[in-house]
Write a structure and sequence with these properties.
Chain lengths: ~725, ~725
């Protein structure tokens, strides 16, 4: 089968993983806190391991018994015979740190801690978890948990856990690995997905992640050859930078990471905090990371099934063009809608393609895309597949959705075999919209699965799968071109001469920082109130803006400290006196250094911001001013630093982009100049994130000639004393 | 079972339906164009009817045979013995009109026409369809089709159609009726839904709707007692007014109409046109109708299953408050997110409720909503149900989602029986998030279904079901309060003295029409250019606006015919001369009557429009001006006429509403005055829709003191000559 352009073939070989080998394939396992009572957690793992076919030795550990269920029971792990690679720990929480230390002493490299009563229960538990972490560090044992349900290696039948999820005969092995911050949820989801035919080689409930994290396991599974898709249920993660690095690696490998991120709404976030005390970075930053890297975000079980099936085809479309072939006009209309909504296009076929397929199609067919062959053609007919092959060969088409509507099992086998042949001859994705109840015993489905032609249930889900493939392909492309461009940064690190203390920097000093990075600001003069009184001419042409100049007033508008549209020197003098008075009323102890007199900039008002996020690192936000940002939340984020090409993509991403790029005959503003500002801002925050906590550039005026920052505010962290 | 507040119980009894009785329950059926070849359409219906158990007589009709498959074959329908209530027609398209006439002559009241080759194939087919319509009118026969796949009454095993959908043993009877504009799609969807347990009493493929329409059948099924949910796949409908009336009736009956509307994107719409040449009103108007009436819009099969299950409970929540009870913290977080996204709330429980449930719950439970009882409690335990009952009794809670996570079938039966008891004692919806692979033989599921406690697959789908129930309830409430208010229209029909010819009415005349309906406009004076030249003082205080006054220039800005911010008489004179010159350049033959000199209004710019849509009738559009409408499409629609209360809802609906209602300390504008404008505009278009095609009021300035229309344009249809 020609796979010249299949994603896996194009990329560097996966790094050889070794770190967690003995965790998932231990030679022997100790069960610490084993009991004979199956209603208790400690009473389950031995039986679950054995009944699921774990091939190695299983050693119960409990000082209260000499023997359990016919096995010798050891007083503690140091007594367990070597080699033992893994301890399952089900003792009371306060005893766990000691057990981990003993594992270290016994040379057991891995432990999975089921015990609850740590960070998730509050302060007392947090103290215990710190103790556990110390034991982990001291012992060198790598620990999953605490407060987790366990791990599964279904490929090799190593099921280490407790509860109903571990007694579900419906689970089967397959090319998916799942890492979940909710154990109960993971095993319930796995059961439902298995019912739709999905197999999992690995499922891990990470619990409180005192040691091994969701991200560690994501990275591990990504590198494993037997894993084609990594799935992760996430409430929050501590290391956004690592998440981004893993996303980049996923693109590189051509393997998707399916993320099911919850805890995004205020009430959901609160619930997540009480659930496992997860990290709670802003969801917007997660989404920025997901959009940038090889992630596919989902919101229900069937999405997971569909993504796995779609990527199972091991090929990506080169563009957004989809051809839809159907025998039901209604399905065609529906798929066309779904594709349109998700950024795909249904381009017309080339005339030569239409000429070739027309003689093969029944009367009343439609060759506009969607291609409706009507119910007159059986999907199982020879001609249906010949038409599919011709459509797949059309240069306007990047992938083909075939809505399969045949009824006879016999014909359907023949059709499936033919479609597999067509797939051999093209490197474009062919997706089957299977629109009948899937019979897992049907030979046609088995043929498709064996030869990796993805089939999806319902036309709408097939369109979504096509969109997911295209989006992943587009991100790979974006990343590749960005790498080809190299890091073409407009400026190197500039010194900013920041004061040692933290807090807000005044407007004037803030603008000097922007200027150091080559960001143009409106012309302005800092004048004392006495200097204003003595003015006979204005420093710049009218109209002007006058603003209070005080290091103690960060929000000038709220303090009555801004006047715009000043049209004469007399007006200027009056305005300066009035805003100084207003500022003193607003904050009597404020140091008033005078006023800033500035040109009045014109154009569209946009805003840019930057923060050095504690989880994700430096990031830049961009949006239009006022209501667009504050009410409509029409903003976008990029991790810093980035070049002007990325900045231009950012500008194009907001919904109100036509306001900048031109609409209904209105001219475009200087988008390139604006992109330059955003890119330089990203350099500033990336270079100085250790001191600069926040930057707010609001507003920036952009017109046809350029972009000018009219106000700026930097907030500093205090300098470290070292 | 107490159903005091169940929706069905609260409403007027359904109207007794009779019109289509013999269509779905015919005493005997003639199959016109019957043949012995099962590969042809005419070769299938007799066998399908008989093998599915149709209890009446089946008469093949074909002049070429005397006998078919052991049955007497008649030369034409007039020879078929009476009583015969239905003819299935599978002859070549050109022969169909004659067959319908013969049905009329034979006293056969209904026909279902499978034959294709009508409107859907273009002009020639359209002529044939007109001929068919004439035959229908003349004969009085009610016809389904042409170009349809057939109808099913699964309740009574009357299956009239052809193709694989009619040989699907998976379909079963149940309380759903489906009406579909795509036959192939309908039967494939029905198969998939049946696989999730859904039963259909009726399924109809309507084809080209030459006579009986989708809406006729929607209305019919809505009134039938054996139908609890009507489902309709719609590409386009011809009578938007009737759609709205059916939506109102659905609310009245408390029965939802599930609509699956496709053909909404440009490419989908094009495909829909080529599919069955459907009507193509703007999707925004469909959505307005769906939002107003008892419709639930869906986009995939599983949505349909979920809505049917949710309404199967026959109870609606009284408010947005949901309690979530779970044993998996992850599910709780997920459900909380889904609820938040869909407008539901998770209010805290009353302190008294928490006090009552705390002793029943395991250690480490969380009583914030979502209520996480942790994996320590078996869902099947006595306490789980006792907690459920206490939560359901909390006054803050309008419905309860129970995420069921038990593993043991035995415990689950006991739990289900207990939950049914709780349901008996409350009128609040209880929804079960069933998170395991559903076994249809499980006694627990059978118990829930028998006692109409809805269960849904996956937590996310359960949250969506809860949101659908709340939205339906809210619409019923809105409708009830609107009816209670009565039609409190601010003004009766006003004469407008419109000219007889069609086309755009000038600004001045347009504003007079608004004024007749009590809509305030900015003060302005119409002056000839000579009058402007002679001015010594301005007619209103500066600043002023000057606009060209010409009946021939509809878009004044594009013609260079508007100047704002005029600050002196000299500026006014110069501006008037300049815009007159610009207007003459723009359109040399334009009649220039002079200029309009107007006050410059202040405030937020909003726009309102009205059309008399050919499908839906008079409708009013509202949004903010400029980019909000043109780029962000942040607009909303209401069918006219409506009162100020509805207008206020409309204003609150747009995303940018905080700009009007106040945000971040900014004051609200005079929303009531704006609502008054919208309501009066709705009266104008409703009263004069026969002459007024469009109204554009753009901009309207709204500030704290009131709303003033600054420009207006009416477009007229020519007066009818009668």
């Amino acid at each position: 089968m020609s796979r010249a352009h299949a994603p896996q073939a194009r990329v560097a070989a996966a790094r050889a993983p070794a770190e967690f080998t003995r965790l998932f394939n231990p030679r022997a396992i100790a069960v610490v806190g084993a009991t004979g009572d199956p209603r208790r957690i400690g009473g389950q793992p031995v039986d679950i391991l054995v009944s699921n076919g774990f091939p190695g030795a299983v050693h119960p550990v409990n000082p209260r018994y000499e023997e359990l269920g016919g096995r010798r029971c050891y007083p503690d792990v140091t007594a367990v015979p070597a080699p033992c690679d893994l301890a399952l720990v089900a003792v009371a929480a306060p005893l766990v740190p000691r057990v981990i230390e003993q594992c270290g002493a016994a040379g057991i490299p891995f432990a999975i801690v089921f015990s609850a009563g740590f960070r998730e229960i509050g302060e007392e538990g947090a103290r215990l978890e710190a103790e556990l972490k110390a034991a982990i560090a001291k012992s060198g044992v790598r620990v999953i948990g605490p407060n987790c349900i366990g791990t599964m290696n279904l490929k090799d039948r190593v099921l280490c856990g407790f509860g109903p999820g571990f007694r579900n005969p419906g689970l089967k092995a397959g090319p998916v690995a799942m890492v979940s911050q909710s154990g109960g949820f993971a095993y319930s989801v796995a059961g439902l997905a298995a019912n739709e035919g999905l197999g999992f080689n690995y499922i891990v409930s990470v619990g409180n992640e005192a040691d091994v994290s969701t991200l560690d396991l994501m990275a591990e599974f990504l590198e494993r050859g037997e894993v084609e898709v990594v799935v992760s249920y996430i409430e929050g993660i501590a290391d956004g930078r690592k998440l981004r690095a893993i996303g980049a690696r996923a693109l590189e490998l051509g393997k998707p990471i399916v993320v099911w991120k919850v805890g995004n709404s205020p009430v959901g976030r609160k619930a997540a905090e009480s659930h496992t005390a997860s990290m709670t970075a802003d969801y917007a930053l997660y989404r920025a990371a997901f959009r940038e890297g090889g992630f596919v975000e989902i919101t229900d079980v069937h999405d997971m099934v569909d993504v796995v099936r779609a990527f199972g085809g091991k090929r990506l479309p080169k563009g957004p063009g989809v051809a839809v072939i159907t025998t039901s006009g209604g399905s065609g209309v529906l798929i066309a809608d779904c594709c349109d909504r998700q950024g795909l296009r249904l381009p017309p076929l080339e005339a030569v393609t239409v000429e070739a397929i027309a003689p093969l199609a029944p009367k009343y067919s439609s060759f506009a895309n969607p291609i409706d062959l009507t119910a007159q053609v059986g999907s199982e007919s020879e001609n249906f597949n010949r038409i599919t092959e011709l459509v797949a060969g059309d240069p306007n088409i990047d992938q083909v959705i075939i809505r399969y509507g045949a009824a006879q099992a016999a014909g359907s086998e023949h059709w499936a075999a033919g479609l597999v042949e067509i797939a051999r001859k093209t490197d474009k994705p062919l997706l089957v919209a299977w629109s009948r109840v899937p019979d897992p015993d049907a030979r046609s489905l088995q043929t498709l699965e064996k030869h990796r032609v993805p089939w999806l249930l319902t036309p709408a889900r097939t369109a979504t799968a096509a969109a997911v493939l295209y989006e992943f392909s587009r991100k790979r492309e974006t990343r590749a071109t960005r790498q080809a461009r190299g890091a073409s940064h407009a400026t190197g690190r500039q010194p900013l001469n920041l004061p040692a203390q933290g807090g807000a920097l005044g407007e004037r000093r803030s603008k000097q920082c922007l200027a150091a990075y080559g960001i143009a600001t409106v012309r302005e003069a800092a004048l004392t109130l006495e200097q204003v009184e003595r003015l006979s001419t204005a420093p710049f042409p009218f109209p002007l803006v006058v603003k209070i100049d005080s290091p103690d007033i960060a929000h000038k508008t709220e303090a009555g400290g801004v006047r715009v549209g000043i049209a004469s020197v007399a007006e200027l003098k009056q305005a300066a006196a009035e805003i100084a008075a207003a500022a003193r009323r607003h904050r009597p102890d404020a140091r008033i250094e005078g006023v800033l007199v500035a040109e009045m900039a014109r154009g569209v008002e946009v805003i840019a911001g930057a923060v050095n996020d504690r989880y994700f690192g430096p990031v830049v936000m961009f949006g239009l001013g006022g209501v667009f940002t504050e009410v409509l939340r029409d903003v976008t984020y990029r991790f810093a630093p980035f070049d002007v090409t990325s900045a231009r993509e950012m500008i194009a991403e907001i919904k109100a982009a036509p306001l900048l790029t031109g609409y209904r005959g209105r001219p475009a503003v200087a988008v390139d100049a604006l992109a330059e500002v955003l890119s330089r801002l990203s350099l500033l925050i990336a270079d100085h994130g250790e001191r600069v906590a926040e930057i707010d550039v609001n507003p920036i005026f952009v017109d046809e000639t350029g972009a000018l920052a009219a106000d700026a505010l930097l907030v500093l962290k205090p300098a470290a004393h070292d």
